Amino acid sequence: MILEHHPHPALFFHTHSSCINAGQPHTIAGSGVFFGFGSLLNCSNCVPGTPSKNCTDLSAILLALQLTPTDHPLLIHTSSDFVIKSLTYWAPGRARCGWPGTDSNLLKCITCWIASCSAPVKLIKVKADSTNQHHHNAAFLAKSACNLPLPPDGDFDDPLAVPPPDAFIPPLSSLIQPKISTNLP
């Protein structure tokens, strides 16, 4: 992916999730997105339902995509192999099969948001125990979100209720580059 020739600067951010009592009837989960120190885009949200760790990781990605402009390259840092593989390797096959499996609504929604981007999206794997302060700040936001109230279904604060922009269709004369990529092999 060639980012240095893009007319807009790349946006870097870290995502993280937190689950309390994962897999139990009273699971509390939160997602955090950290763009940088003092950024007004730094945010967190409480994830509704009885979310799994994977669902909460996906919710963080969706939240980040909804906050960023679609014409900037995105470098998304996450510790979730599941998120990276789901979006870079498995999504086309799942789409062809009608999005089977758990978290299918989230995956479908995220791919629609990525399709609306005119710039490339790269998912970057970071170690879960990373000493990176940005990653720690995303984790703090995710843990803090566990104390937030749940948004009502269909509410403005429910990320699945926000429709994605129309899919971006590149001009015929444009250079072809991957829409989504990763640093994983």
SSE layout and pairing:
Layout: E1 11-20, E2 28-34, E3 43-47, H1 53-67, E4 74-78, H2 81-96, H3 104-115, E5 121-125, H4 133-145, E6 180-182
Helix pairs in contact: 1-3, 2-3
Organism: Tetrapyrgos nigripes
Domain RNase H type-1: 7-147
GO molecular function: nucleic acid binding; RNA-DNA hybrid ribonuclease activity
N→C terminal distance: 14 Å
Unreliable stretches (pLDDT < 50, length at least 5) are none
Could you please say which CATH topology applies here?
Nucleotidyltransferase, domain 5
Largest sheet features: 6 strands, mixed
* Radius of gyration using CA atoms only: 16 Å
Which CATH C-level class is it? Alpha Beta
Strand order of the largest sheet: 3-2-1-4-5-6
- Residue-averaged pLDDT, rounded? 84
Shape: globular
Order of helices and strands: EEEHEHHEHE
Specify the helix fraction band. 25-40%
Looking at the overall shape, the CATH architecture is: 2-Layer Sandwich
Q: Give a count of the beta strands, DSSP E runs of length 2 or more.
A: 6
CATH-assigned homologous superfamily: Ribonuclease H-like superfamily/Ribonuclease H
Number of spatially distinct domains: 1
InterPro entries: RNaseH-like_sf, RNaseH_domain, RNaseH_sf
Protein name: RNase H type-1 domain-containing protein
GO molecular function: nucleic acid binding; RNA-DNA hybrid ribonuclease activity
Domain RNase H type-1: 7-147
